[in-house]
Design a protein that fits this description.
Oligomer: heterodimer
Strand order of the largest sheet of chain B: 1-4-5-9-8-7-6
Number of strands of chain A: 31
Radius of gyration of chain A: 40 Å
Number of strands of chain B: 9
Structural class of chain B: alpha+beta
Largest sheet of chain A: 7 strands, mixed
Strand order of the largest sheet of chain A: 19-22-23-27-26-25-24
Strand content of chain A: 25-35%
Order of helices and strands of chain B: HHHHHEEHEHEEHEEEHEHHH
Largest interface: A-B, 96 and 79 residues
Largest sheet of chain B: 7 strands, mixed
């Protein structure tokens, strides 16, 4: 909020602060007290401070409130007063009834008759309204706005002739409607607090007036309102009807319920000064039992010390209470019952009082005291470190880590995951960020395209982040599955162009190798089975399973040619995605190393090319005993010289006995068994 | 005897002149071979009177050994020379670049995460995690922000139609932790948070760290001590802190912490908008209502909490100004963070 120094000076003597340093000093002290001065602009006649404050300090959303705060901070004991009460000049009044005591325990009304319709708001007042960007409307409305800025009391002025009967503060009845000052029409419900006459709603209490009863250039007789509306009821109206006004902003945060009378006097004084008229008596309804409670709070200096880590003397504490206008009674030594003033909605517990003491003592004057605490370690399990390990691993394998937004446009999400409906945000920034990601890969593809259009052709990326899945029926207890996943993408040359190495494009097995070795380092046995994914090449996709488990933990594959075409990609692109929480790190399994020699036997097989390597491997392992230490493929050939439906596979079998040297015949017998099984079960034949 | 001296001189000269192993072998044959000159001399010993033979024999042996040693020495030096020659041919240009794969990079946010994890692990804090889609209770109500509370307007939150929301702060993790573990507690949560804000200095998704300590003897003064240690260690320089009273619904007292600008040492520069200070974090003593929500006795235990933006911290650390660079994922930018 912007404050004029001259206006503040009307309420507190700033001359006492010493004119030469006062702007800087004011700025420094206010900032150190929790009122950050965001700017300070001086002209020849005034200085404007832009001061920000938290929602707890609504008592300072006015010139008088801020002047009072300055008096506290600078220990100035007396405030100035500019208000003089006007005696009633006529006997006119409207009956006022409150049917919603909790929402409106206090309502003051006053009639002013015969104002001059041609009166003009004086320039000095317009200038001060301008500070809050309030446009001039009509002298009477301008005065109510002025009083709101000056005292913090939002007021309303009605055209008296439009009010039928009297004033009732009540909740709306079903079916009632109102057209507001902003021309919008609202259908009211039973929770809407309104000001009504005997026929119809006149205003949304504490938020905005109605158009029908508004002041017009022809208005001569007015009815002024100065009331206390309880914060929650105004907040409800503001939120339900999406109406944020200067009045609702203040009422929601708490307006001093003892301010209504003073504000009424100030507004009457200014209206008569500017537009003349004759004032009636102030009609007031006070339902004191429903006023906000200001209960005494018990505070001990021990508690102050426990929370702040400093000890304040009784005198210091009492001095601060006095500066803050807190009412206190010393119960015993170093214990007080403290009652905050009516305008401090934020002070309800001892901690609130302690914050006030700390604020006046100065946060920067509180020392830095080292902590004494029990020494305890709580080292995370290896599992908890898996994301950190994965990051280092893929960085070392020549991948760049990226961070993408967790939301994206639905089209990109559907392009990759057409079978999964995403969770949609109700209030996204834009459609581009409208739905939660169901996979990390659309984000990686976006990053790939961004970089490709910036002359990068060899791109290797990875990301670790949350994906959001779950039931699509948006109900109170619909499941939101939130999985931490790891995904990678690879396109372009296998290695950066360099001397002594042929330029080769990456293929499926480059990515698979990086992924497999990651699993190896995590000590996971992961199986790759031919799989399918709507966005991946049907013949170049594998689903990943933990050995011995049915649960799919991820996939790897080449991007589907139709999506490649969509992105105008000319070289193949490979991606993988793994659910990180499915990977459980375990300690290495160890066995004793045999001291006896290994024996290697090579097999060259002709076999149907539809039989995957994994099946050949499994068949061999089933037949052989535990002395078969390793099987690896060292050549694979399809083409000239063999039938088109066959492939030639060259395998190495490594045998080793744990406790003795192998006898040649034992190995030969095992190899015979293996060949027989491959022949009978897989139709393999030995190549000569 | 003069004859023999001449023979030794001759052998020495020829060995010296032998410039490869083959020539050296010829030398050996010429002097020490079966028909060599020295062998011939040995044979002539028989012609000498018996009394002179031992002395002459000894003389001959000395000469033989001298020649042998000359031969061995020459052979070794010739071999060394030939190896040196062979190695010279095998020389390579060691300044050529190495081959194979390069290395990638870690996102700058990850670098900051790692650094923070180091600092707080040493102080005995545990790292906790929680869901990014939360419900109203964890994100607001449990943090002393009931429905219709004006503080809800301080953060513009993303909602789903079910009423759930994207967490707008890391504080929900504090609530989960306090529900499941009993004090004393020292915890840190780092992760993604979301607010409906998108401009030069805000992205709708960003990263936050929140720290919570609950113990019997925790005070505002001890919070200041932890903050100063952490900030000084993070920026690796002595940090000047300034605390301003502030408002957060979940702490009381609350403070905003500024640090003396790390770029200009408080003189005033573009980074600190010429104020000499940089806003860095919010903190405070845990509000008794929050303790009530999670069943911690606030007469027995007190706590402090603080939270800060990791993205901003990262920008400060690397003296960068453009927040958006963090989410553009331009490889030329990322490549700087090996």
């Amino acid at each position: 909020m912007k404050f004029s120094k001259a206006w503040l000076h009307d309420w507190v003597d700033l001359g006492a602060l010493g004119a030469s340093v006062s702007n800087d000093l004011l700025k420094e002290k206010l900032t150190a007290s929790g009122f950050e001065v965001e700017s300070c602009e001086s002209t020849s006649i005034d200085t404007i401070f832009d001061i920000s404050m938290g929602p707890n300090r609504a008592d300072c959303l006015s010139v008088k409130g801020m002047a009072r705060e300055i008096a506290t901070i600078f220990a100035i004991s007396s405030m100035r007063n500019v208000i003089s009460a006007l005696p009633a000049e006529n006997e006119m009044s409207l009956p006022i009834n409150i049917h919603a005591a909790e929402a409106c325990p206090r309502y003051l009304g006053r009639i002013i008759k015969n104002i001059n319709p041609n009166a003009k708001t004086p320039d000095w007042m317009l200038a001060r309204l301008q500070l809050a960007d309030i446009e001039p409307i009509h002298p009477v409305v301008d005065v109510t706005n002025y009083v709101m800025l000056e005292l913090g009391q939002p007021m309303h002025a009605f055209d008296l002739t439009k009010i039928k009967g009297g004033i009732t503060v009540r909740f709306a009845k079903p079916g009632e409607t109102i057209t507001l000052l902003d021309e919008s029409q609202k259908a009211l419900d039973a929770e809407a607090l309104i000001i009504a006459d005997q026929e119809k709603p006149l205003a949304l209490a504490g938020v905005m007036g109605g158009k029908d009863s508004a002041i017009t250039p022809l208005t001569k007789d007015i009815f002024l309102e100065s009331a206390f509306f309880a914060p929650l009821f105004v907040a409800r109206t503001r939120q339900h009807y999406q109406l944020s006004t200067d009045a609702s902003f203040r009422f929601e945060r708490g307006v001093d319920f003892c301010l209504s009378h003073e504000a009424m006097e100030r507004a009457s004084q200014l209206i008569v000064e500017i537009a003349g008229g004759s004032v009636g008596p102030i009609e007031a309804v006070n339902l004191a039992e429903a006023f906000p409670k200001r209960l005494p709070i018990l505070l001990t200096s021990k508690k102050v010390e426990n929370l702040l880590g400093i000890s304040l003397s009784d005198n210091e504490i009492q001095h601060y209470f006095d500066l803050l206008h807190f009412d206190w009674n010393k119960e015993e030594s170093s214990a007080w019952l403290v009652t905050p003033p009516s305008y401090r909605f934020d002070i309800t517990i001892a901690e609130d009082l302690i914050e006030e003491l700390a604020r006046l003592f100065g946060y920067d004057n509180i020392p830095e005291t080292p902590i004494f605490a029990e020494l305890s370690t709580d080292t995370p399990k290896e599992q908890a470190q898996i994301d950190s390990f994965a990051r280092t691993y893929f960085r070392d394998r020549d991948y760049h880590e990226v961070i993408s937004y967790s939301f994206l446009d639905q089209a990109s999400q559907q392009l990759f995951d057409p079978e999964i409906l995403p969770h949609c945000l109700m209030n996204p920034i834009s459609d581009e960020m409208g739905v939660m990601r169901t996979s990390l890969i659309p984000g990686l593809l976006k990053t790939m395209l961004y970089n490709k259009s910036r002359q990068q052709s060899r791109i290797r990326l990875f990301e670790i982040g949350t994906c959001f899945l779950g039931k699509q029926i948006e109900q109170e207890n619909s499941a939101f599955i939130q999985e931490t996943r790891l995904a990678g993408l690879m396109i372009g040359d296998r290695v950066k162009e360099q001397w002594g190495a042929a330029v080769q494009q990456v293929d499926f097995f480059d990515l698979k190798s990086d992924l497999c070795q990651f699993f190896t380092l995590c000590r996971q046995n992961v199986l790759f089975d031919l799989g399918s994914h709507p966005a991946l090449h049907p013949g170049q996709t594998a689903d990943l399973f933990l050995k011995g488990s049915e649960k799919k933990i991820g996939f790897i594959g080449a991007l589907h040619p139709s999506i490649m075409a969509y992105f105008k990609l000319s070289t193949q692109l490979f991606v993988f995605e793994v659910n990180l929480s499915d990977i459980v790190c375990c300690p290495p399994k160890t066995h004793e190393v045999s001291r006896f020699p290994e024996i290697r036997r090579d097999l060259s097989l002709l076999i149907l090319n539809t039989i995957p390597f994994q099946q050949i491997q499994a068949t061999i392992k089933r037949v052989a005993d535990e002395c078969l230490k390793d099987i690896f493929i060292f050549d694979l050939y399809q083409g000239k010289g063999i039938l088109p439906d066959k492939k030639s596979v060259a395998l190495a079998l490594i045998f080793q006995h744990p406790t003795r040297t192998f006898v040649e015949e034992e190995v030969s017998a095992q190899v015979e068994h293996i060949i027989l099984a491959l022949k009978n079960e897989l139709g393999a034949e030995l190549r000569s | 005897m003069l004859e023999l001296d001449a023979l030794l001189g001759e052998a020495r000269e020829e060995i010296r002149l032998a410039d490869d192993l083959r020539a050296l072998e010829l030398c050996r044959v010429k002097f020490l071979g079966r028909k060599g000159k020295l062998t011939e001399s040995l044979k002539s010993l028989g012609h000498l009177p018996v009394s002179e033979r031992p002395a002459a024999g000894q003389q001959l042996n000395l000469i033989k050994e001298a020649i042998l040693s000359e031969l061995v020495e020459r052979e070794s030096s010739l071999k060394k020379a030939s190896i040196k020659e062979a190695l010279a041919v095998e020389a390579i240009d060691v300044t050529l670049p190495g081959r194979g794969y390069g290395v990638g990079s870690l996102h700058p946010i990850t670098h900051t995460f790692d650094r923070l994890r180091d600092i707080f692990s040493r102080m005995g804090f545990v790292f906790m995690d929680g869901p990014e889609i939360e419900d109203d209770f964890y994100n607001f109500t449990a943090l002393n922000v009931p429905p219709l509370h004006p503080a809800r307007a301080m953060q513009d939150t993303f909602y789903f139609s079910s009423g759930r929301l994207l967490r707008s702060q890391m504080s929900p993790v504090q609530i989960h932790t306090m529900q499941h573990r009993s004090p004393p507690l020292r915890m840190v949560a780092m992760g993604k948070v979301y607010r409906r804000d998108f401009d030069l200095t805000h992205t709708p998704m960003f990263h936050q760290m929140e720290c919570l300590m609950v113990d019997k003897h925790v005070t505002f003064a001890s919070m200041k001590s932890i903050l100063n240690q952490f900030l000084s260690e993070f920026f690796e320089t002595e940090i000047k802190m300034r605390l301003r009273p502030s408002y957060f619904p979940f702490t009381e007292p609350s403070a905003e912490v500024d640090i003396g600008c790390i770029n200009c040492n408080g003189v005033g520069c573009r980074l600190c908008k010429n104020t000499g200070y940089i806003e860095i974090l919010g903190c405070g003593m845990v509000h008794p209502n929050v303790f009530k929500m999670v069943g911690i006795n606030s007469e027995q235990f007190r706590g402090f909490a603080f939270g800060l933006g990791i993205d901003r911290l990262t920008l400060l650390k690397y003296r960068m100004t453009d927040l958006r660079a963090l989410f553009e994922n331009d490889l030329r930018f990322l490549d700087q963070f090996k």
